[in-house]
Known about the structure:
Layout: E1 18-23, E2 26-30, E3 36-45, E4 48-58, E5 61-68, H1 71-76
Antiparallel strand pairs: 1-2, 2-3, 3-4, 4-5
Amino acid sequence: MSAPASAPPRLPVIRGLLLVPVKDGLWRVSNPSGMVLGHIERRTEADGDRFSARRLLAASRTMNVGSFWRIDDAVDCFR
């Protein structure tokens, strides 16, 4: 028996950033001009959901910024 799916998080509204759903539990973070800044991924762990932020450094390189309990904190890494 698998664990029940978590409810989708409330996406924060941050001026100057857009969150675009890529698939269930993954969002692309971009600026208003469309430049992709990185991604946020939701991971369900034993103690609850965590949101990992990855900043895009080049076309195929990313850097893990951190893992957060709240999606708002993960998004804040891109400001």
